[in-house]
Amino acid sequence: MLADPFVILLAGHYAGDYLLQTDWISGHKAERSVTGWLANSAHVACHVAVTLALLLVTRAATGLDYSAAGAVAALAWIGFSHGLIDRRWPVERWMRATGSTGYLESGRGAPMVDQALHVVVGLFPAALLLAAL
After folding, report:
1. How does pLDDT run across 76-122, given as a tens digit for each residue?
2. Alpha-carbon gap, residue 110 to 113, rounded angstroms
3. What end-to-end distance do the CA atoms of the chain give, in Å?
């Protein structure tokens, strides 16, 4: 079933993006520098770790079981897609390509598009991997 892994991955995403992300990570993860790559890598590691923990806790508490291949593939996709999206240039390119430059430049649009990309491009495919493999 697809809903179970999706909800677990969404909880991991919210924990990694809102509960556990520090000001330092948030402020530096998109920089084109060594500091930026370190911040982005720390953020990705946090997402992968918290999602793995939630998968293990859910498995122990409910008996939901996923294959090792599915879990590894899902976690790898979450790490890759999250790190890429959080470099910020994919969000900006998407918004410019779809004619949302005013929304981008207002400062209100980028955070919403960022979250939509994480859900649609990151979490949904990862949930499919968990459910299918």
Report:
1. 999 999 999 999 999 999 999 999 888 888 888 889 999 999 999 99
2. 5
3. 12
Domain positions in the chain are 3-132
Q: For residue 104, is it left (φ>0), alpha (ψ between -120 and 50) or beta?
A: alpha
User: Can you read off the two tokens belonging to residue 20?
Assistant: 């556990």
Q: What are phi and psi of 48, to 5 degrees?
A: -65, -45
Q: What is the pLDDT of residue 105?
A: 87
Cβ neighbours, 10 Å, residue 123: 25
DSSP state of 20: S
Six token digits for residue 124: 């949904």
- Output b/e per residue, 87-118; b: 16+ Cβ within 10 A: beebbbebbeeeebeeebeeeebbeebbeebb
131 exposure class (CB count in 10 Å sphere: 0-12, 13-18, 19+): middle
Task: Supply the Cα-derived Rg of the chain in whole angstroms.
Answer: 15
Chain centroid, CA 7 distance in Å:
13
Q: Which amino acid is at 55?
A: L
